[in-house]
Write a structure and sequence with these properties.
Elements lengths: L1 E7 L4 E7 L2 E6 L2 E6 L6 E2 L13 E7 L2 E10 L4 H4 L6
Parallel strand pairs: 1-7
Antiparallel strand pairs: 2-3, 3-4, 5-6, 6-7
Length: about 90
């Protein structure tokens, strides 16, 4: 399961694809694959990237065999109204 958390950025995520515990991420046309297939129950201590310009994975954990990954959903300034709520005093 993938959970998205919004963050304003000029990065563009073109895909997040999770298939058989393998997450494929594409940022600005750079692709990287994260293989969680051998990841046991528990919380990932550290997730590093090799090719992406930024690590979009906030957290990963496996509970009772089910993989849960939280990733950043980057959004641009033209999408600001969809993700940001004005603060009123």
């Amino acid at each position: 399961m993938i959970t998205y958390t919004p963050q304003r950025s000029d990065f563009y995520i073109s895909t997040y694809q999770l298939e058989n515990d393998i997450l494929t991420v594409s940022i600005n046309d750079v692709v990287e694959t994260f293989d969680f297939s051998q990841f046991p129950d528990g919380v990932a201590e550290q997730i590093t990237t090799e090719t992406l310009p930024i690590n979009p994975i906030v957290s990963a954990q496996r509970v009772n065999g089910e993989l849960n990954i939280t990733v950043i959903q980057f959004y641009g300034k033209d999408e600001k109204d969809q993700y940001e709520v004005p603060y009123d005093d």
